[in-house]
Amino acid sequence: MTTLPPVDATVAAARERVAAWRAAGARIGFVPTMGALHAGHLALVRNARRSADRVIVSVFVNPTQFAPTEDFGAYPRDLDGDLGKLASVGADAVFAPTTPEMYPAGFSTEIRVGGPSAGLETDFRPHFFAGVATVVAKLLVAVGPDVAVFGEKDFQQLLVVRRLVADLRLPVGIIGHPVEREPDGLALSSRNAYLSPAERATAPTLHAALAAAATSIRAGADADATLAAARARLADAGFVVDYVELRNAADLSPVDRTSTGPLRLLAAARLGRTRLIDNIAV
Amino acid sequence: MTTLPPVDATVAAARERVAAWRAAGARIGFVPTMGALHAGHLALVRNARRSADRVIVSVFVNPTQFAPTEDFGAYPRDLDGDLGKLASVGADAVFAPTTPEMYPAGFSTEIRVGGPSAGLETDFRPHFFAGVATVVAKLLVAVGPDVAVFGEKDFQQLLVVRRLVADLRLPVGIIGHPVEREPDGLALSSRNAYLSPAERATAPTLHAALAAAATSIRAGADADATLAAARARLADAGFVVDYVELRNAADLSPVDRTSTGPLRLLAAARLGRTRLIDNIAV
To answer: Beta strands B93-95 and A7-8: pairing type?
Structure first.
């Protein structure tokens, strides 16, 4: 029988555990999650294990990154199941704070990151990145890891976190982990659990449309026409498209004639009540 | 001849120095300043010395807490003089970063603290506390002290910093140091250097008016009438009054019938081009 990783419910307990690891000479890896773990999260934990001697995973569904109209209440939660999965990939501990531990009475601090947060998700979830930046800063300060692993599936979030860490000079290295996908191309996401069988059959079109558009743009096709075609393909398949956009990969600034570095295609689209996001290098 | 404290110009150098101190078992004290040091700052350093084995003082005139119309360019700067003064009170090192070291190209993070930042200074300097909170978080993360000392002269700032540190769970104790005053009652401030001889002669009226109002309120006088009298006394003396207000001392919330804890009188008023602030316990 696998031993489940120990769970710390307070900042003080997590900090004490990490301090003991560090005193023993360990390099500390950290993977922040909202739980409802799937193979994508477990790949992040394996990545952290390759970069560190000890790995701690946080499980916290952060209320401040959900708008009142969004799915905070319905967001899947399964700590017992998560612990079993984390044991299977060798996580050494779990930090699972309560909401009052993270946001006690009187809490009134918000961290706003500009730069890469402009547009894309922000156009549809205006308060999202302030919620993410605030909780990520709190988690990094609480745990104090040497490295932290974030998925490229949330590519804009990854760049916001890199900007946050650079700007506050938090002493942690940020590792981006490539998008993990189902065999049919659908990016792994906790929200895939919301999809009906029919929606699940349609969902891979999001990745397929992005991959086809990336291939066209790489081959020299007009970007605006290619993006319009990708949007049309998604709409035809039954998606309500929030955005399909081409940006500079380094900072998500808009692409223009001066762009010389790598580009990134990013998309968000809804199938019924489920909002999916995905992205791909160009 | 006194040896001047060593100066670190980068976060990396300051962090390395503090890490070496800590590895040697020292408890670290920190005093953030904008330089132009006077006896008030030196009292903060002495306070830090009593609470720590090693004391590092930052000297950084933070541009983000000045509005374009304010005195950032004219703010007094004298690093050589500051080092001599710091040597005289036993500061062990100085962290004096450049502006690009603190705010490199692309910097785009801002920390906003609600709660105690509402009203008072914010009514007259709307961006002030976001600038303060952001730079204080950066300095605390950069230096990583066990304790940091802030003056009660900037009482609202002290409460904003306490709120920030609690909300982000920064692992540092915040020590508030009582207002240091000239023999005639004027609170020590770098901006006192701006006062003409005539303004300097008038300036102690700010403290005198607050002290008289505090005595009256303690004795049971009507608070609104007492505050109005204090404002009138300051205006008669030649001040342009920004505010004279009574607040709950714990969180600067407005005073009402439910207030049971200590109160604080806070004021800001201008003499010519110089803006003075002061406060007193009631």
So the answer is: unpaired
Pairing of strands A93-95, A54-59: parallel
Q: What does pLDDT average to over chain B? A: 96
The answer to whether the Cβ–Cβ distance between B170 and A251 falls below 8 Å is: no
Chain B contacts of A163, Cβ < 8 Å? 106, 108-109
Distance CA(B14)–CA(B19), nearest Å, equals 9
Substitution target in A102, A168, A251 with the highest count of B β-carbons within 10 Å is A168
pTM exceeds 0.80 for this model? yes
DSSP character string of B104-150 = -TT--EEEEE-GGGSSTHHHH-TTHHHHHHHHHHHHHHHH--SEEEE
ipTM of the complex: 0.94
The dihedral sign for the CA sequence A128, A134, A138, A141: positive
Any catalytic annotation for residue A207?
no
| Cβ-nearest to B112 among A110, A142, A169 | A110
- Residues of chain A in contact with residue B110, where contact means CB-CB under 8 angstroms, are 111-112, 114
pLDDT above 70 (res B197): yes
Q: What is the dihedral of CA A108, A112, A117, A122, to 10 degrees?
A: 30
Q: How far apart are the first and last CA of chain A?
A: 45
For B7-12, which contacts have Cβ atoms below 8 Å and span 24 or more sequence positions?
B7/B79, B7/B83, B7/B93, B7/B94, B7/B95, B7/B96, B8/B93, B8/B94, B8/B95, B8/B96, B9/B96, B9/B97, B9/B98, B9/B101, B10/B97, B10/B101, B11/A169, B11/B97, B11/B101, B11/B142
Tell me which residue has tokens 């696998």.
A2
DSSP letter (8 states) at residue B203 = T
CB–CB contact A108 B113 (8 Å): yes
Rounded Cα distance between B3 and B1, Å, is 6
- Closest by Cα among B176, B179, B134 to B158: B176
pLDDT tens column, B103-113: 999 999 999 99
Please give the backbone phi and psi of residue A175, each rounded to the nearest 5 degrees, phi first.
-110, 125
Whether B241 has its CB under 8 Å from any CB of chain A: the answer is no
pLDDT in tens, A67-109: 988 889 888 899 999 999 999 999 999 999 999 999 999 999 9
Distances from the Cα of A154 to the Cαs of A129, A198, A279, B6, in angstroms? 11, 24, 8, 44
Burial (Cβ within 10 Å: 0-12, 13-18, ≥19) of residue B157:
buried
Question: Within 10 Å of residue A67's Cβ, how many Cβ atoms?
Answer: 13
DSSP E strands in chain B: the ranges are 7-8, 28-33, 54-59, 93-95, 109-113, 147-151, 173-177, 240-248, 263-271, 274-281
Q: Which two tokens stand for residue A97?
A: 């704070």
Q: Supply the mean pLDDT for chain A.
A: 96
Domains of chain B in start order, with CATH, are: 7-177 (3.40.50.620), 190-281 (3.30.1300.10)
**Mutation to test the A interface, candidates B138, B168, B252, most A Cβ within 10 Å:** B168
